[in-house]
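Input C-alpha cells:
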C-alpha cells in the first residue's frame, strides 16, 4: 500500500471541508502542561470511584534528566 504525502492544498481542502473541526491543521496540542493536567484529573476521578490507579506521568517526571 502506498503512503500518500499531504500537500498544503490538502490541508486547505480539509479545512474548508470540515469547518467545525477545532484543530483543522492537526497542530500539536499535547503539551506537558496539558498532559499533566489530564493525568492529575484521571488520578482524582480514579480515587473518587475507588479504583486503583498508577500515575505514570508523575513518576516519569520524578526521574532526573
Amino acid at each position: 500500500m502506498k503512503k500518500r504525502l499531504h500537500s498544503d492544498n490538502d490541508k486547505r481542502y480539509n479545512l474548508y471541508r470540515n469547518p467545525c473541526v477545532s484543530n483543522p491543521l492537526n497542530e500539536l496540542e499535547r503539551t506537558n502542561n496539558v498532559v499533566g493536567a489530564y493525568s492529575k484529573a484521571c488520578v482524582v476521578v480514579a480515587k473518587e470511584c475507588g479504583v486503583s490507579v498508577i500515575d505514570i506521568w508523575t513518576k516519569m517526571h520524578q526521574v532526573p534528566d
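The radius of gyration is 19 Å. The chain has one domain: 8-62.
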